[in-house]
Structure formats: C-alpha cells, structure tokens
From TrEMBL:
Record function comment: Plays a role in photosynthetic sucrose synthesis by catalyzing the rate-limiting step of sucrose biosynthesis from UDP-glucose and fructose- 6-phosphate. Involved in the regulation of carbon partitioning in the leaves of plants. May regulate the synthesis of sucrose and therefore play a major role as a limiting factor in the export of photoassimilates out of the leaf. Plays a role for sucrose availability that is essential for plant growth and fiber elongation.
Domain Sucrose phosphatase-like, residue spans: 813-1010
Family that this chain belongs to: Belongs to the glycosyltransferase 1 family.
PANTHER family: SUCROSE-PHOSPHATE SYNTHASE 3-RELATED (PTHR46039)
Organism lineage string: Eukaryota, Viridiplantae, Streptophyta, Embryophyta, Tracheophyta
Basic and acidic residues bias locations: 113-122, 743-759
Record-given protein name: Sucrose-phosphate synthase
Any single GO BP term: sucrose biosynthetic process
C-alpha cells in the first residue's frame, strides 16, 4: 500500500469524522447496510468497503480528486465529495475484478486452443518423426540465449556476411509509414508517431547502404503535402547517402546507388494523419510502392543487371502498418519479407485491459487495436524472418500471437533441416538483433581534458575558452551546489512507466548517496507543465514535490529544454564527473539509451525487466535492479559511485564490447540472417522482355488489332455469326487479309487442345494484355440462394460495361476487359455459353477466387493458363495437410469457435468440381452454423497453416487458396507480369460480395460500386467485429457509385470521372 497513502488518509478522516455513523451501521443487519443512514445526509462507509473494496486501488485521477477534497473547507461539501469518491473506487474495483476474471478466462481459453493446435499439428507430423526429431518435442522449453551464444551458434551454421559479398549488388527495401521521416534535423518527439523508430529506420538505411554487396536501399514512407508540417516531407525523394566508390569498385558506382527516402502519396494528400487513421489507405501505398519498385528494378537492371530486372533482395516492414504493406508487396513480387514489430498490438491491449480504464470496444475505437493485431498476424503469415531487439520480446510479446508458437517453430525448423515433410505448416524464424548505433562521433575520453573543461565551467580554472564548453553543461550545472560530485544521469520521457519518482525517492532517502553524488533528470522538453498531457504533467508535478519533500535543491538538476544534438554532451558531462547512467523503467523493451551511455564511458544501473538484461550480458558494464525496490536502486548506485575500481572496470568493459551494438555489426548480422532465408524473385517461363523487344516489329499488327477492337467487334448481345465471319482469311476486306497473313505464323504454334503444356508457345493475347493502357475488371459477386450465377442482372451489367467503354473512342482505344470470380473455369465457360458471351471479349479471366489466371488463345474459345502464376502463388501452400485440417475444424467447430457435439451431421462436404491444384473448395450445408473467417483463420494459424480462406457465392462455398493468391493480388500480379499499372485498372463490384470483397475496393485502382446489383453476399461471415471502416476508406477519389439500372452513358461518365483521379 506504499503508493496508496492518500487512500488510507482519507479513510482515516472518514472514520474519525463519522465514527458514530459507522458504529450504527455495523449494528444493523448485513442486508440493511447502506452508504447513507436513512434520510440523513451524513456519509456512512461500511466495514466491507474499508476492508475489501479499497485494497489495492492505485489511480492517479482519484488521487487528484482527493487533493481537492482535503482542500475543501465546507464539511458538508467535503463529505459529499468523499462519498462520491468512495463510490468511484467501489465501481472501479468491481470493474477491475470483472476484467480480471474475463482476462483469466481468456488466457485459459487461449492456452487450451494453443495446446489443441499443437496436438492437431503433431497428428500430421508424428508419422514422419525420426528418432532425432523426437528430441525436439513440443513440450521442450526453449532456453534463451545471450548475444554471444547466438553469434557462436549462428557462425557455426551460417556464413557470416563479409567483404567478399561485394559483387552481389543488392537492392533492399525498407518500409516505415507513419510519423515524420527525413534524414536531417529529425523532429523526434514532435508527436507520438515520430520517435525512436524514425531514427532507427533512417540510420539503418544509411548503414545498409555502406555495407559491401548492397547497391541501393530505399526507405518508403508517406508523402505529406500539408501546411501543418515542413515542406521537406512533401519531397518525393531524399538522398540519405551515396555508396562509396570503394564499395562499388570505383568507376562502377551508379547514379542510383546509395540510400534514399522514397515518399509515396496515399490517403488525403493535404493532411498529416496519425497512424491510427492510416489503415484504410494501406493498399494505396502498396500500389504506389509497387510502381516505384518496378521502375527501379528496370533502372537497376540497366545499370548493374546486364539488362535484366534487379528485384529487391528483401522487403522489410517496420511496425504493423508497414508489415501489412510489406506482406502484400512481398506477395506481389514473390520476394522474401522481414518484419520488425517495434511495438506490438496484443501486448498493448493486454496492458490497457489490466488498467481497467477502458473497455475493449473503447480501446479499439481509440487505437484501432484489432486492425493492428490483424495486420501483425498477416505479417507473421508472410514473413520469412522476424527481427526483435531482445529475447523477452519473443517470449512475452510475439508468444501472444496465433501465428507464432516457439515450441512448434522449433519442431518445424528441425524437420525442415532434415528435409522431412512439414505438410504445409510454417512458423517464421525469430532473430534477436539489437539496434545499431553510430559511434563515429563518440569521444571516448580517457584523459583529464573533460575534467579541465568542467573545472573551467565551475570557476576552478582561469583562461580557458568558454567556446570549449557545451551550453547544455551550463544549463545543467547551474542547479548544483557542488558540480564536481559524480552525476547520476536519467534520460527519458516524463512517463509513469519510466519510474522516475521511484528513483527520486531512492535518492532522497539515501543520505550517503546524496552526500556522494548529484542527480540529473532529463525529462523531455516543457514550457508549461499545465500544457502537457495529464500523465506527463503528473510525473513532473510529483517529481518537483519530491525534490521539495527531501530538500534536494542543489543536488538535483531538471532543465526544461534540450536539443537532440545536446544528448551526447550530456552523456560526456556525466562521464567526466565519473558518474553513472540509470534506467529504472518498470519494463524496458530494449534500452537504446543504455548503449549510448556505454559508448560514452558511463557504467549503468538498469531495470531487470526487459531488454537491459541482454544488453548487460553483452557489455558487462553495470548492475541490474528491481525497479520497484527503492533500497536496491540506491545500493546499486552507491556501489558504482563509491567503488572506483568497479567503476573503471565497467567503463572499460562497455568500451571493449560496444562494437556488438555498432551499425556495421548490426548490418552484418542482419544480412547474414536474411541470406539464410529462402531467397526468391520473379522467374518467368515466358520471356516478357523478349516479347517487348518484338513490339516494334508488330506495331502494324497492334494498330490493326486496335482498329478491329473498336470497330469490327460486335457487342455481346449482337450477331456473333457476323463477328466470326469477319475473321475469315478469305474475307474481301484488305485490312483483314493483311491481319490474317500476319497472324498465320503465330497460329501454327498454338496448342491443339486446352491445358496442353505451354512451355513451347505463348498465346497472342499475352503481349496484347501487356500493351493495354487500361483494364476494366468485372468482379461482381452476383449469385442466387444456391450459389449459382444470377444471370439476368449479371449479364446485363457485363453488356452495359462493355458498351459503355466502347461507346467512347478515346476510352475504347487500348482498353481491355477482365472477369474476376470465385467460379471455377468450367462453370464460368458454361455461364458464358448460357449468356451467349464470347470468351474472346476478355483479355484475362481470374478464376476460383484468384487461384487461376487464364488468357484467350489464338484459336476461338481456347484458353491458356498463365504458365508462371501457379509457381508464383505456390509459396507455403500445403494442399493435402490443409484438406484434413479444414475438414476436421469445419465439422467440429461452430459459430464463435465453440465445439460441436459429436454425432451431428457434417456442415461441409468437399466440392471437387470447384477444387484445383491451388484451391480447396467445400459446399456449405448450413451457413448459419459455420464459424466465421476470422475464427477459421485463427485456428489454422495456431496449427502453423498459412493460407487465404474465404466464403463465396452467397455463403454456399468455402474456398481456401494460397497465402499469395487472391483476386486483388492477381491484379497486382498482372501489373508485375505485364506492366499493366494497377492505377489504370477499373474494378466493378456490387455493394456486397465474397469475404475478399473489401480487398477489391481499396487501392489506387478505380472502383465502381454498383448499388442494388448484389443483394446477397458472404460479408456477414467474415469477422465478428466490423472492421470495414479500418480497411475501406469512407471517402476516396478512386471510388465511384452507380445504380443497377444506370444507362450506358452514366457508366461512361463515371469511368471518365474516375480516370481524372490522381494516382
């Protein structure tokens, strides 16, 4: 109860002032005990309230209320306030107990689910377990490793990155979306989004660009064109550093080498948005970044790739929003992804719930925490490697996620190492790589030069130049009566979690420490405490009161202002006085200030909770303490300050081992870890570049084909016989004769039957799609109760859209059509035949929810599968293992994840007609009893299965496709494969659709939502909490609306209007 003296105080006051009322209350039967006695106005707290309710409550807002209570003179008003305060504590405590019970239930349920997931995973795995693998059992506890042990283990199995990698010429992509990111004069602390992560990613980009073998590093962030912020954040490109001639073999240094900040516009162009508001615009960023990467890969190919594209070696996302983006980019480009979480949503949610101040709904409304957690889970699905700062982050934070299980990861890694089948199960690798630091400007003073400066400033020397003494030294030392004492330095925000008040109490209550040392508190910048956020203001106010309470004037410095450039000088001042650096935070995720202090020769005292444990194991330069133990803190500080031999030993150890936290060491470990990933990049069976080289030779053919597209093709409801006749080689039309002769050599190379191997030939539609300027994608999920296509409205919409495009000569030129659907190809062909639609009307067909892509062949009605798409989406796809697991889950689990009773009829049956190599399909027998997609995805993740499940066709089908496959990702594939920019695609959807419907709306493509067209969709089975507003922007220049009965001219107008939207 040390932190709750004020509660005890006011209870004593209540008991003293109302003793009689309490005695009367205690004499009444238990059922009659009330807070007020009869009709009187006197306050009567009960014994239950005193003994049970108040115990353990510690709330700063109630403390402020109590301060107002004790200042109240009027006894009646004072009693009224006391009563209200007691009620607040009572309700708060009841709420906390309820939340604690719910939390314990949630933890217990989660533990059971994880154990069930492990058991289910081992059912498939145990058959192939070798004797060696049985030692890697799921029940084994993984022991944490020190950085040294990790380095030794890694070096024994992986080649350490070295200078002989110089010939690699790598292209690395980093992503950090939120905050204000620039290379110089970083505005750290200007808001909650612009902090240590910004500094870290900028310095990482610079350091990677200096590594041998790295040619270019792009750091992607958001472009902000707002008067609220500096103009520099609107610059599309900012150079951070150029690659040195030494690293690039002198004259081979290219103009595109080095590190750059690339700012991509997404979301409202004229506003600076906090990270919680950026979520609906993530896909806009992905499309913009994809366009830049494709252009850059071509440029780098000309410079260093012998004319072949240079794809990113790795895409590294920082934080949840960038992780979500990196997962989509990685899937579109088929390159490895790395993730650094920095701060994790599940951990934050747990902490906020424990505080008891907000409900889960309020937390989600404020922090968009559910969208953030889902982004982190998606990032884990796609990531090859997850980089953390400490082992604690792996065990206590990432361990909260469905997508990561330390024990299962160890087993799967052992199986993969032995070449044993994992049945499609996968866990990302976790690597502890502490952040790096730039030590080039650190002055390691081992002489008395600094002491001379200090003596000069203190008035103990004459003739010394004041210019040699930093200004911040004067600002600090003016607080001290004796500035020659060793300085205990604490540097942090005035945040309650940083535990500054406990440090002050420890210093104030230890007489020997006060006599021997001074204390300097660098607590951010402030002009007026009252203008600070309540939490910060409360810490500062308490600190000032404690200084007054212990009469620490002349022994404690607390300057109001400092610049970022002053921080090294502050460390140097503390080191010159032979002082100590302390970080007493309740929990410290990493502790970058500890490394900075060690680099300047300061021993450390740090919290034993979190990252400092790993840092101390590497540096051996200080002591760890319990942050709640004032006496332990005081004793540790006193030991280091008083024992000079120990102080010198810690100082030397810090300098000797600090290289482990340098940027070169960080980047070397980083590149070594990335090199051990499965390096992959687009590899086309069909040579798109060769086809591009033939474009000039075929220009006449293309021009004639464009004429044919505009004038000779008839509409889908026209006379098809006349259209077929127009392609007759014997036609008297000279244009058609020329076209026929030009196409004859191509026609001979076409396959005779559909599905024949495509390695020997490429359909003529391939280059045609590549040269399209725009693509109209019809993705209307219009089905009846049985899941069959609702032909009448669907066919009418297709006809009207094609008519609308062709009615405008400018739009008709070089425009193509695509159909995107959850129907399998055979069913789609039958639909076309029933509706009398020619397959040749479309340049591409995206079937089975994005698991297949087809192009019309040279022969009428023949369709050619994309020969590269199948291998592109095959990543982490486990077909057979997935079938067994999904069947079991869907028939044993009901709505909300509850178990179904045995003996009940199955809810699904396999739909073989809709299944293919990369799509597992099921028929839904009772849609009211099946679990939602978010529940299914969670259970699959717990079992190590990474895929993309979705309900479709009016909730009559469940289709599961690979992680990299979806209808929206198929459009990005067309962009990467054929350079058909997503910004020039127009996607037509209804108001409802399959559960992947939301993905089709967001992005830089233009979306046309047809109201009233789709009355029945599968949206309700997507998730238990509606997150649509966090996925789809409420307003966007890329989204237009039509009515189901809109005439052709209105469709044309909306397409023209959307074409003017800036991409």
């Amino acid at each position: 109860m040390a932190g709750n003296e004020w509660i005890n105080g006011y209870l004593e006051a209540i008991l003293d002032s109302q003793a009689q009322g309490i005695e009367e209350t205690q004499q009444k039967p238990q059922a009659a005990m009330t807070l007020r006695d009869g009709e009187g106005d006197f306050f009567n707290p009960t014994k239950y309230f005193v003994e049970e309710v108040v115990t353990g409550v510690d709330e700063t807002d109630l403390h402020r209320t109590w301060l107002k209570v004790v200042a109240t003179r009027n006894s009646r008003e004072r009693n009224s306030r006391l009563e209200n305060m007691c009620w607040r504590i009572w309700h708060l405590t009841r709420k906390k107990k309820q939340l604690e019970w719910e939390d314990s239930q949630r933890v217990a349920n989660r533990r059971l689910e994880r154990e069930q997931g492990r058991r289910d995973a081992t059912e498939d795995l145990c058959e192939d377990l070798s004797e060696g693998e049985k030692g890697d059992g799921l029940g084994e506890i993984v022991q944490p490793e020190t950085p040294r042990l990790q380095l030794q283990r890694n070096s024994s199995s992986v080649d350490i990155w070295s200078d002989d990698k110089k010939e690699n010429r790598l292209y690395v992509v980093l992503i950090s979306l939120h905050g204000l990111v620039r290379g110089e004069n970083m505005e750290l602390g200007s808001d909650s989004d612009t902090g240590g992560q910004v500094k870290y990613v900028v310095e990482l980009a610079r350091a990677l660009a200096r590594m041998p073998g790295v040619y270019r590093v792009d750091l992607f962030t958001r472009q902000i064109c707002s008067s609220e912020v500096d103009w520099s954040y609107a610059e599309p490109t900012e150079m951070l550093t150029t690659a040195s001639a030494e690293d690039c073999d002198g004259d081979e240094t290219g103009e595109s080498s080095g590190a750059y900040i690339i700012r991509i516009p997404f979301g409202p162009r004229d506003k600076y948005l906090p990270k919680e508001i950026l979520w609906p615009y993530i896909q806009e960023f992905v499309d913009g970044a994809l366009a830049h990467i494709l252009n850059m890969s071509k440029v780098l190919g000309e410079q260093i790739g012998n004319g072949k594209p240079v794809w990113p070696y790795v895409i590294h996302g920082h934080y949840a929003d960038a992780g979500d983006s990196a997962a989509l980019l990685s899937g579109a480009l088929n390159v490895p992804m790395v993730l650094t979480g920095h701060s994790l949503g599940r951990n934050k949610l747990e902490q906020l719930l424990k505080q008891g101040r907000q409900s889960k709904e309020d937390i989600n409304s404020t922090y968009k925490i559910k969208r953030r957690i889902e982004a982190e889970e998606l990032s884990l699905d796609a990531a090859e490697l997850v980089i953390t700062s400490t082992r604690q982050e792996i065990d206590e934070q990432w361990g909260l996620y469905d997508g990561f299980d330390v024990k299962l990861e160890k087993v799967l890694r052992a199986r993969a190492r032995r070449g044993v089948n994992c049945h499609g199960r996968y866990m990302p690798r976790m690597a502890v790589i502490p952040p790096g630091m730039d030590f080039t400007n650190v002055i390691q003073e081992v002489t008395s030069e600094g002491e001379g400066e200090l003596a000069s400033l203190a008035g103990g020397a004459e003739g010394s130049s004041p210019k040699a003494v930093p200004t911040i030294w004067s600002d600090v030392m003016r607080f001290f009566t004796n500035p020659h004492k060793p300085m205990i330095l604490a540097l942090s925000r005035p945040d309650p979690k940083k535990n500054i008040t406990t440090l002050l109490k420890a210093f104030g209550e230890c007489r020997h420490l006060r006599e021997l040392a001074n204390l300097t508190l660098i607590m951010g910048n402030r002009d007026d405490i009252d203008e600070l956020p309540s939490g910060n203001a409360s810490v500062l106010t308490t600190a000032l009161k404690l200084i007054d309470k212990y009469d620490l004037y002349g022994s404690v410095a607390y300057p109001k202002h400092h610049k970022q450039s002053d921080v090294p000088d502050i460390y140097r001042l503390a080191a010159n006085t032979k002082g100590v650096f302390i970080n007493p935070a309740l929990v410290e995720p990493f502790g970058l200030t500890l490394i900075e202090a060690a680099a300047h020769g300061l021993p450390m005292v740090a919290t034993k909770n979190g990252g400092p444990v790993d840092i101390l194991q590497a540096l051996h330069n200080g002591l760890l303490v319990d942050p709640h133990d004032q006496e332990a803190i005081a004793n540790a500080l006193l030991k280091l300050v008083s024992e000079k031999n120990l102080w010198n030993e810690c100082r030397i150890n810090g300098w000797k081992n600090i290289h482990l936290f340098s940027w070169p060491e960080h980047c070397r470990t980083y590149l070594t870890r990335v090199a051990s990933c499965r390096i992959r990049h687009p590899q086309w069976q069909t040579d798109a570049d060769e086809m591009a080289a033939q474009e000039d030779e075929c220009s006449l053919n293309d021009s004639l084909k464009d004429v044919q597209d505009m004038s000779l093709r008839l509409s889908v409801d026209g006379d098809k016989s006349s259209w077929n006749a127009s392609l007759d080689p014997n036609s008297t039309d000279p244009v058609k004769q020329i076209m026929s002769r030009m196409k004859q050599p191509e026609t001979k190379s076409k396959p005779e039957v559909q599905g024949k191997k495509q390695g020997d030939n490429v359909g003529s539609k391939f280059p045609v799609l590549r040269r399209r300027e725009r693509l109209i994608v019809i993705a209307v999920d219009c089905y009846n109760e049985e899941g069959a296509p609702d032909e009448k409205p669907m066919v009418a919409m297709i006809q009207n859209i094609i008519k609308a495009v062709r009615s405008d000569p400018k739009m008709a030129k070089n425009s193509g059509f695509a159909l995107s659907t959850s129907m399998p190809l055979d069913e789609l062909i039958n639909f076309f035949k029933s509706a009398k639609i020619q397959v040749s009307e479309f340049d591409t067909l995206i079937c089975s929810s994005g698991s297949e892509v087809y192009y019309p062949g040279a022969e009428e009605g023949k369709l050619l599968p994309d020969p590269d798409y199948s291998s592109h989406i095959d990543y982490r796809w486990g077909n057979e293992g997935l079938k067994n697991t999904v069947w079991k889950l869907m028939n044993t689990t009901a709505v909300g994840g509850e178990a179904r009773n045995k003996g009940l009829p199955s809810l699904v049956e396999e739909d073989k007609a809709s299944s293919n190599e990369h799509c597992v399909a099921y028929l839904i027998k009772d849609r009211s009893k099946v679990m939602r997609i978010d529940d299914l995805r969670q259970k699959l993740r717990l079992r190590g299965l990474r895929c993309h499940p979705m309900y479709c066709r009016n909730s009559t089908r469940l289709q599961i496709v690979p992680l990299l496959a979806s209808r929206s990702q198929a459009l990005r594939y067309l962009f990467v494969r054929w350079r058909l920019n997503v910004a020039n695609m127009y996607v037509v959807v209804g108001e409802h659709g399959d559960t992947d419907y939301e993905e089709l709306i967001s992005g830089t493509h233009k979306t046309v939502i047809v109201k009233g067209l789709v009355k029945l969709g599968s949206d309700a089975l997507l998730r238990s909490t509606d997150l649509r507003n966090d996925i789809v922007p409420s307003e966007s220049p890329f989204i237009g609306f039509l009515k189901v009965d809109s005439p052709v001219n209105e469709i044309t107008d909306i397409l023209k209007q959307l074409s003017k939207a800036a991409g």
